[in-house]
# Entry
Amino acid sequence: MKLSYLIILSFSLLIGCRQRIQTDKVLPVYPPVYPDYTEVTIPKNIAPLNFMIKDDITAIQAVIKGDQNQMVLNGTNTIRFNLKKWKQLLLDEKKLAVTVSVQKNNEWIQYKSFNWYIADEEIDPYLSYRLIEPGYEVWNKIQLAERCIENFDENIFADNNLTEGSCMNCHIYNNQNPSQSMFHIRGKHGGTVLNNNGNLRKLKTKTDKMLSNAVYGGFHPGGRYAVFSTNYIIPEFHAQGSKKLEVYDTASDLAILDFETNQSITNPLLTDSLNFDTFPVFSADGNKIYYCGAKAIDVPDSIQKLKYSICSISFDGEKGEVGTSVDTLWNARMTNHSACHLKPSPDGKHLLFTEADYGTFPIWHREADLRLINLETGKIDSLNQVNGDYSDSYHSWSSNSRWFVFASKRQNGIYGQPYFCYIDKNGVAHKPFVLPQKNPDLYNITLKSYNIPELSLGPLPFDAMDIERLYWKQEAEPFSDKEI
# Structure
């Protein structure tokens, strides 16, 4: 019995030794892995970083080595991790060295090793996004999806096939908490869907004094209020061949929604027809409203002169009132650029925004990049290590303020994909990485953009069938005007 056990053990060890191939050539460059996961910082709770080599190869081997563990994986052109072993690997290690070898033309080629740096801080485990065809096409199907980023589970929580093909957009959370969230459904039976612990309300937010229904905005941390823009939005095709679509406002104001009284609160400072005001959000403590503001101009003729500054006004959450003066945090005239998509970090230390040459619709502006303002010092980080060659735009923070997600078209200039970025304790942003997929080739075969990515602490307490019932069976609750 002992002899046969030793023979089996010896044979197993021999197989293990043979797992490491003998290389014929060593190249001093990183392997062309797809997606690009070279030299990235990742959270301990991220799903496996499966990757592939697109070159014409016959085999691939990856050796993943840490201080306590070593893993050898083989494939034809793809490396896939076992989820359970991957999770244990990230728990045990602070850094992993990855050595990739490929077989091509009957020889084994080894590439320069790259590292995965494992941060102590986790990222919020859920991500919601809108799956939609690129905006210059006629879309016929929109889904709002929720993905657990600790594995590969995805859930569709709203589907326009169940709501007369109506448009759905802008799903947002209150402080990354799934117990309070909202999004808009257009169409005959549409409205703003407000989720409070799974209790769904459909709201008709437009009042006589508002330009439109609520469009862009965010919750007050207390949950009673939300601040939104109301916009006349015009989409038009570009005359320039290098650009496809332009979207702009011909008018835009701000309003505060009171969910307890169903009132829309307006103020002359935020509804001046001489200004375009949009993309409002509350500060982390709820005592300010940040928003983008510009002088009203003739559009589209002067569209390239439309440049938005970052402004702020105080807010009293006890009284539901705004202040009497507006401050400018970032002046467009000083930079000759335009700001949009304002998102303060939950700890109140930073303000993340998108900067483009002009306007407020950067998704089709190749030059659009992310910028980070230190709210304590006023210093602006250009985030050169984060931004890509194509549009980097809509973003959302993790609840611990150490991670954010953003939509990037860096792969092909057409389809937006969610990328994660780590902010270390010194406020330095690290190289971002795309949301891992079970099949790493998925982004090449999926003809959808991952639009408006938002991080969340947990799963939503409703599903697509709940939204279908709300759409068809419940009347929208009207809002009334209140001017202060």
